Amino acid sequence: MKKTLFICILLFNLSIVSAQTIESGSHSTAGYIKSDGTVENSSHSTVGYIKNDGTIENKSHSTIGYIKSDGTIENKSHSTVGYVKSNGTVENSSHSTIGYIKDDGTVEGSSHGTIGYAKGVKKEWAAVAFFFFKMN
Fold first, then answer.
1. C-alpha span between 112 and 106 (Å, rounded)
2. CA 86 – CA 5 distance, rounded (Å)
3. How far apart are CA 56 and CA 128, in angstroms?
């Protein structure tokens, strides 16, 4: 019985470790991004997926966009909707800055006000969560 309880606790802890928390500017939980790219809201309901190849899917696994290797974000028709620069600047399709993803996971709007936190999340994934899935 103790062994079963230990295994259950271990598995529970591993499932928590594998998800990064997305927080609002006030540090309340807005959602989660799991290591496999599953995007969940604060109630742990799946809202989408970010695949390792850059494909962005909705909760029904329909493709809604792509993250290209150069940081370009495209919609399902391959039209550019934004860019994530290597320095963390997030731009819309017209190259106007709409936000910033800092190295420490702080997410800022265009005027540098903090809109959330995504510590330990890839910059491109954080940008998709905040600026495209609207998790803030």
1. 10
2. 45
3. 9
User: Alpha helix locations (H) across 18-136?
Assistant: 123-127
Alpha-carbon distance of 108 to 24, in angstroms, equals 11
Report which DSSP code applies to 116.
E
Query: 10-residue block means of pLDDT along the chain (136 residues)?
Result: 37 50 92 91 92 94 94 94 94 95 94 94 88 68
Pure H helices in the chain: 2-17, 123-127
Query: Which DSSP string do the residues of 26-63 spell out, in sequence order?
Result: TS-EEEEEETT-EEEETTS-EEEEE-TTSEEEETTS-E
Amino acid present at 134: K
68-74 long-range contacts, CB within 8 A, separation 24+: 71/124, 73/124, 73/127, 73/128, 73/132
Note the pTM of the prediction, 2 decimals. 0.79
Buried residues in 2-30 as b, exposed as e (16+ CB within 10 A): eeeeeeeeeeeeeeeeebbbbbbbeeeeb
107 near 126, Cβ under 8 Å?
Answer: yes
